[in-house]
Amino acid sequence: MNVTTTFRHMEQSEALKAYAEEKLERVQKYIDGPLTAQVYFTVEKIRHIVEIVISARGVNTKASEATNDMYAAVDAVIDKIERQLKRYKEKLKGHKPGAEENGRKLSKKVFQAASIEASEEPVVITTRTETAKPMSVDEAVMQMDLLHKDFLVFTDAVSGDLNVIYRRKDGNFGLIAPQRA
Predict the structure, then answer these.
(1) With a cut of 50, which residues of the chain have pLDDT below it?
(2) CATH number of 2-93
(3) Cβ atoms of residues 161 and 178 within 8 Å
């Protein structure tokens, strides 16, 4: 497991770093393959905030917790991530393994806002290629929850069509799918 720690507005503590790494060993049983974790320790006035971002073979999750004690915040955030990964693993048990790496390639561009508002050619700030992985709607909702995103672009595992699932303001989910003629 590769663990990176960042301390914000506080002194580095080897004891705190070792404690977080020890607790992260608990979540490794839920994920197959190499695991990368980023741990952020932040102090804001009297609040101690711990945020953990985990990336591993198609699974990305993050959680944060704020308490009055840094060690209690580590325990709480590890519990939160463990619940998320346990739920994710349980859902995967019901799905048949498919071609996970056969998703569609998408180009993601970020445009400069001022260039779009003006009547000139939009200025591209960054371009990144991503893969819309094949998954069911249930898996897409779960992945969206794990990543704390408002929408997710994915390839439907059954039809192979590109779909978008999004979180509505009323808490429900919407699905944008192409219509067959």
Answers:
(1) 99-101
(2) 3.30.160.100
(3) yes
